[in-house]
Write a structure and sequence with these properties.
Elements (H helix, E strand, L loop, with lengths): L1 H22 L13 E16 L14 E18 L3 E14 L4 E16 L11 E18 L10 E19 L4 E13 L5 E16 L1
Antiparallel strand pairs: 1-2, 1-8, 2-3, 3-4, 4-5, 5-6, 6-7, 7-8
């Protein structure tokens, strides 16, 4: 599992390096120093894997300890940060990954969510092409949710049943941000999250995502 995450993260780093190299020749682009505060939203897509708890009983006993990988999960994110100079930023970070599947009328939804604190590094020149590169890492509270609901056509959907297991999360992200104006940036990124849950239904999980983000600086 760690090899899979590391390989995808390395691919993201190489992608960012290529973007930065291309930006180096784009003399028409403008660059600005970052303001003290930032708020950003993102959207990505990527695979995830959940491993069942070892102590499952009853009808779920045969699935105890088994791992299932899902492709094409949606990965929205929100962050709010405070710059420390022009090289570092401390931010509160929410990251989510969810996938829905099943045969009508029953739908199953599995989700991984993280609420954490992160430290971001901008290693390049703030007023040059390399200033758009960033590295982010953090940790926090993790959640693994499993839900089931009826989705019969022509009938209003009910809330359904859901079980949440809680634990911790560790995450990392790298990307490149382009200045749209002195107060807005748009970026591309790759992120990886790991969840240590040890709950009633889920033991652990992870997901990776490739996405875009829009940030406001003020």
């Amino acid at each position: 599992m760690t090899r899979i995450i590391a390989s995808r993260f390395l691919l993201g780093l190489l992608t960012v390096a290529c973007v930065a190299a291309t930006a180096d020749n784009a003399h028409a682009l403008r660059y600005y120093e970052r303001s003290a505060w930032m708020v950003g939203v993102g959207w990505g897509v990527g695979p995830g894997r959940l491993t069942n708890a070892e102590n499952l009983t009853g009808d779920l006993a045969d699935a105890a300890g088994a791992s299932t990988e899902y492709k094409g999960g949606a990965a929205p994110s929100i962050r709010f940060g405070r710059m420390l100079g022009q090289k570092f930023m401390v931010d509160a970070n929410w990251g989510d990954w969810l996938v829905e599947f099943g045969t009508d009328p029953t739908k199953i939804r599995r989700t991984l969510q993280s609420w954490g604190l992160a430290l971001s590094l901008y290693p390049g020149d703030p007023l040059g092409p390399s200033g758009g590169i960033y590295l982010r890492g953090g940790a926090g509270l993790g959640l693994a949710g499993t839900g089931e609901k009826e989705a019969e056509q022509g009938v209003a959907q009910q809330r359904g049943q859901r079980h949440d297991d809680w634990g911790y999360s560790i995450f990392g992200e790298t990307g490149y941000e382009f200045w749209i104006s002195s107060t807005f940036t748009a970026g591309v990124n790759v992120a990886a999250y790991y969840f240590g849950i040890d709950g009633d239904l889920v033991d652990s999980g992870w997901f990776t995502s490739f996405g875009i983000a829009l940030n406001a600086h003020f």
